[in-house]
Amino acid sequence: MELNSEPLKKILSKYKFRDVAIEELQKLNRVYPDLKLKTGSYTFSDSTQRDLLNLVGNIPVKYKGHSYNLPIQLWLLDSFPFTPPICFLRPTSNMMIREGKHVDAKGRIYLPGLHNWDHPKSSVSVLLEEMIAKFEEDPPLGMKSTGDGKDPNELLAFVSHLNITEGGNRPDKGVNKVSVIGGGDLGMAAVLSIMAKSPVDKLVLIDIPESSTKGGTMDLEIFSLPNVEVSKDLSASAGSKVVVVTANAWSEEQSYVSVVQTNVDMYRRIIPSLARLSPTAVLLIVSQPVDIMTHVAWRQSCLPPTHVIGAGCNLESERLSYVLNIALLANKSDKQAWVIGEVSDNKASGSKKFTLSLLTPCRGLEMLKGRGQRSWSVGLSIADITHSVLTDQRKTHSITTLAQVSHPYCGVCCCL
């Protein structure tokens, strides 16, 4: 691998970890000598451009006894090797991209190794090995059909004979798929509650390493449930109709607000990927503080405001309605009370249908004392909202949403 040309030396001089980057490239050259190091201008999603190094070449992939060379291109950011490369397929004019679990329509490659990149454990060599293994399971390229009756075995990815199996292929649009991002008690409660209440064909629980809410996912793997998949790879959420984000970076010793920046940083790593993998999904945010994190998720996802909602005060509203209906011997189907405002002690009742003086605060507190472990309560509320989205029930919920759509004076997400 030639590193002494003037264009390469000029761009390398701008890299933050130049010496480490050179060392990594030399190691890579010993394993993959056919990869060529080039220079070029990369255009980011915000239309900014930057001169970067990029690796161009082919990786050998075997499928059904045949060997193929898949053309790839890896863009190395100026913080390489401490940040992962941006990887693309480079199809020729007679090839077509097969969008799937690890490749989008533009040919960009998404792998667990990229999401969990951690130098020096992670390297381009290890990444290419993972890429080869994944593409041997699910070939990402095929030859464009000429329509001249040629033998379909000439297709690069055997499009005519490819077995369509669960995982890695584009999901059926009619499948009710829900993904829950974040493990721990809340993630488990959400999974089991959704499975019990909603008509879900497939439910994926993704336990991400950034979240402080861990545990329980191993038990789900041991005692497997029908239609439930446990994964650590965000790409498993592809094609979801609802994506529930329960992941939190806060501990019980910290306040919700004190860890906002930590949660924002965590969202920056997961929300764009979730939105790309399920562009028509509804994001249901449960991370705390839910009002702020819903706004953050909306900004980072670039989805319409109506597709990014927070759990809001749905749980509190349902509890209030239940307590009041019991106290007043009312018919719950006809009487609905609302709790609105930020998800904290500052929230307030918005009901006009009840005379609240009939129920003293002490009596209300007494009736709620036995509500049990909070994770299950929130999980049931998540299932309630998810069920309404999947079945289009036209039910009204007290959720967090961007009110700017209908109320121009409000510019952040709030519970209404």
Task: Give a description of the structure.
- The protein has helices at 6-12, 18-31, 112-115, 124-137, 184-197, 217-222, 260-277, 290-301, 314-328, 361-368, 374-391; strands at 36-43, 49-63, 66-76, 86-89, 95-97, 141-143, 177-181, 202-206, 228-231, 242-245, 282-285, 308-310, 339-340, 348-349, 400-402, 413-415.
- The protein has 416 residues and is α/β, with parallel strands linked by helices.
- Helix 5 (184-197) packs across helix 11 (374-391).
- Residues 149-173, 354-365 and 367-372 have low confidence and may be disordered.
- The longest helix is centred in the middle third of the chain and has 18 residues, at 260-277.
- The chain has two domains: 6-161, Ubiquitin Conjugating Enzyme (Roll), CATH 3.10.110; 171-416, NAD(P)-binding Rossmann-like Domain (Rossmann fold, 3-Layer(aba) Sandwich), CATH 3.40.50.
- Residues 2-145 form the UEV domain.
Topology (elements, then pairings):
Elements lengths: L5 H7 L5 H14 L4 E8 L5 E15 L2 E11 L9 E4 L5 E3 L14 H4 L8 H14 L3 E3 L33 E5 L2 H14 L4 E5 L10 H6 L5 E4 L10 E4 L14 H18 L4 E4 L4 H12 L6 E3 L3 H15 L10 E2 L7 E2 L11 H8 L5 H18 L8 E3 L10 E3 L1
Parallel strand pairs: 7-8, 7-10, 8-9, 10-11, 11-12
Antiparallel strand pairs: 1-2, 2-3, 3-4, 5-6, 13-14, 15-16
Helix pairs in contact: 5-11, 7-8
Pfam family, one: Ldh_1_N
Protein name: UEV and lactate/malate dehyrogenase domains
Organism: Astyanax mexicanus
